[in-house]
Amino acid sequence: TFDPRTPDELYFEEGDILYISDTSDTNWWKGTCRGRTGLIPSNYVAEQAESIDNPMHEAAKRGNLSWLRECVENKVGINGLDKAGNTALYWGCHGGHKDVVELLLSQPNVELNQQNKLGDTPLHAAAWKGYSDIVEMLLNKNARTDIRNNENKLALEMATNAQCASLLKRKQGSNFTRTHSNAEEYLDDEDSD
């Protein structure tokens, strides 16, 4: 148990789960426990704790919705990157965990189009794995269909089933049509002068 001496320190007991968000000070780390944020003496944690890097990614990868909710409630960064440059959203899409993806997409400021070290986005992952319901969810949130990965492939080119390909083609077609019609309207305005 750690009893805080100042208002900015965080109370926690043995067995509590601490979400560490800042270790820049070697003596005092910033962390969150049970929805409260404050400073934690690093020696308490470093000596006795089991560590899980990227807990939100692990929860998303495993489809563990309750753990993911706990991460969100404890202010774990929604767009944090793991060693491969993946976000939790990428892992939720890659695993086909629709409920995880739904929760992540409901968070403000979730980055839909973050590319990992291979250049893949969550949309690339969902298309490649053939999860058309997740492809549709991402497209409904306006995920970009024009991003190419390091192999110069669009999500459409990675789609492994007809349903994913159809959704992506439809979205790309509507984007092209919209751009084309805007250009025509612009030219019509110019011509009328």
From TrEMBL:
<dbReference type="GO" id="GO:0007165">
    <property type="term" value="P:signal transduction"/>
</dbReference>
<comment type="function">
    <text>Induces bone resorption, acting probably through a signaling cascade which results in the secretion of factor(s) enhancing osteoclast formation and activity.</text>
</comment>
<protein>
    <recommendedName>
        <fullName>Osteoclast-stimulating factor 1</fullName>
    </recommendedName>
</protein>
<keyword id="KW-0963">Cytoplasm</keyword>
<keyword id="KW-0040">ANK repeat</keyword>
<dbReference type="Pfam" id="PF14604">
    <property type="entry name" value="SH3_9"/>
</dbReference>
<dbReference type="InterPro" id="IPR036028">
    <property type="entry name" value="SH3-like_dom_sf"/>
</dbReference>
<dbReference type="Pfam" id="PF13857">
    <property type="entry name" value="Ank_5"/>
</dbReference>
<keyword id="KW-0728">SH3 domain</keyword>
<dbReference type="GO" id="GO:0005737">
    <property type="term" value="C:cytoplasm"/>
</dbReference>
<dbReference type="Pfam" id="PF13637">
    <property type="entry name" value="Ank_4"/>
</dbReference>
<feature type="repeat" description="ANK">
    <location>
        <begin position="118"/>
        <end position="150"/>
    </location>
</feature>
<feature type="domain" description="SH3">
    <location>
        <begin position="1"/>
        <end position="50"/>
    </location>
</feature>
<dbReference type="InterPro" id="IPR002110">
    <property type="entry name" value="Ankyrin_rpt"/>
</dbReference>
<keyword id="KW-0677">Repeat</keyword>
<dbReference type="InterPro" id="IPR036770">
    <property type="entry name" value="Ankyrin_rpt-contain_sf"/>
</dbReference>
<dbReference type="InterPro" id="IPR001452">
    <property type="entry name" value="SH3_domain"/>
</dbReference>
